[in-house]
Design goal:
globular; alpha+beta
């Protein structure tokens, strides 16, 4: 059985759950370069939207992180 690449794992996640954050990618797939994976998927025709999420860290400081949402997949020819 061939192992899935990180890109394949992230795509499968997006297709099933519709969104992912860097923290999800790290915790679930040990993928530390999510933005690079998203860039690759976009080049392959995936319509992925980036949404900025604001939150607070453990010290009460405001932080912003990206949430990637899959809107559609490319149509096959």
């Amino acid at each position: 059985m061939q192992k899935q690449t990180k890109t394949q794992q992230i795509l499968k996640h997006l297709q099933k759950r519709k969104s992912i954050t860097s923290w999800d990618a790290i915790m679930l797939y040990k993928a530390t370069r999510l933005s690079a994976i998203i860039h690759t998927l976009r080049k392959k025709g995936m319509h992925i939207v980036t949404t900025a999420i604001k939150s607070k860290d453990v010290n009460g400081n405001e932080v912003t992180f990206a949430k990637y949402v899959l809107n559609s997949t490319p149509k096959r020819k």
